[in-house]
Amino acid sequence: xxxxxxxxxxxxxxxxxxxxxxxxxxxxxxxxxxxxxxxxxxxxxxxxxxxxxxxxxxxxxxxxxxxxxxxxxxxxxxxxxxxxxxxxxxxxxxxxxxxxxxxxxxxxxxxxxxxxxxxxxxxxxxxxxxxxxxxxxxxxxxxxxxxxxxxxxxxxxxx
Length: 159
Fold this sequence. Notes:
Blueprint: E1 2-8, H1 27-42, E2 49-52, H2 56-68, E3 74-76, H3 85-93, E4 101-106, H4 110-119, E5 130-135, E6 148-154
Helix pairs in contact: 1-2
């Protein structure tokens, strides 16, 4: 059994003359990310590996989660910025089998589309939303053919 956690970056700012890639979190984002990380940890969600889009807002969100989990090992994955479904699949299939749980930090609409494809129901991620899926497989390379189940979906406004 493997667990996949999908996290949309926390609320970001829109400063003038800053490229999209370099947009930072705003005040609410800096508040929600550590709060959400603490909440899902308290709910028993285990995260052993952290993989993030290298965009500033996603990476900052990921760092808050990794810090909460006492894990500083973050892998940056270029294809999680402006991702397509196949980018998520490829990233998941390449996770080391030493990890039973992995969190991917990315952006909307890609993350909502990917989560919807896994759950079979529309999942619209708010900023800093977290979806937890269990997969019936022993290796990440078996991801595509494995049965998947949405077990938890957290939204910052509901905690």
